[in-house]
Fold:
Amino acid sequence: MQTEPSKSTNPIRALCDQFNAIHIDHLERRWISISLLVIGLFVGIITIDAFFHGVNPPSKVETIDSASLHLSEEFAEDNLGVSVNQNGEIIIRMVAGRYSFFPKHIDVPAETQLTFRWVSMDVLHGVHIPMTNMSTMIVPGYVAEVSTQFPSPGEYPLLCNEYCGLGHNHMWSNISVIAKEDWKAPVKSSIKGDQQ
Ligand SMILES: [Cu+2]
Structure:
């Protein structure tokens, strides 16, 4: 490899001149180009997913004691499932545990913004709902919050996508998505956090 000192005063141009002066074998040059293209493709896919499909990492870290979920107000058995907060937002609280999602069955409206709040009561789980942006890890000790919309009515599978034990491949469930106009909103939530 050989470099020639650049005479340009523009630092970027000087860098380009220096780069062009380096001898790179044409095969190496080809592989560098392919690598850069692959990186560009991945960054492009991530950017499109983030801006157009709502695929983002969780934006906040919210902790919870997984061993005493049943004693917490928010994830006590009676408060699980679909609720509507004081602002009219639909919040769905679900617990993942070996080997199921609780509650077992929920009805949600199609074409409506829904906020899911997931917690694990034992080990690491995941949840994936095909045809939506719902794909998150459910880490014990943390609340995983994901906002999503179901594009059309139907039965949507709910799959655990993190190996959680011998029964992992049986850990799945369904969500019934019904037409917006047929969906009946539950009574307003009495959970303290929903009344702010
Ligand atoms: Cu699993």
Observations:
- The helical segments are 11-21, 26-52.
- Residues 125, 160, 162-164, 168, 171 surround copper (II) ion (CB under 6 Å).
- The longest strand covers residues 90-97.
- The chain has two helices and ten strands.
